[in-house]
Amino acid sequence: MKTILETERLRLREFLLDDREFILKLVNTPGWIEFIGDRNIKTPGVAEEYIQDNLQTGYANNGFGLWLIELKATKEPIGMCGLVKRKTLENVDIGFALLPEYARNGYTYEAAKATLKYAKEQLKLDKIVAITDQKNVASIGLLNKIGLHFEKKLELTENDAVLLFS
Questions:
Q1: I need a surface site. Which of 46, 86, 113, 133 has the fewest CB within 10 A?
Q2: What is the reported pTM?
């Protein structure tokens, strides 16, 4: 298990295949489905494929990716946060998602702020961007709080417009 960074209350580490039940739970929360989209991950086997094909491939190809957020005190997995290199974006972007029962405790802010610092200091990335659904008020607020500012509206596909922050 590779720990990437730690904050006062959290540990961010690479996802393992053993995290399939957690992934299954996270990607099927109402907030994930509304703002990120239904990834059609409905079984532990498909969750394992997602971890292998998306998350672990990102670590291998880029040296970074989306990491599991766990509470240091209990090792309870509560969400994900990290960096993604998408074909559709020029720069690396930061992404995050949390189980609803852990929202509004400052965990996402703590993880995102530490991830930005890691991106600048360890990975030497000059510019980090973020994309979010225009209706995702909580995400927009957090992006502003960690120092990213609205740049423009992007049309990813015909029916999918997002806001770009940098």
A1: 86
A2: 0.93
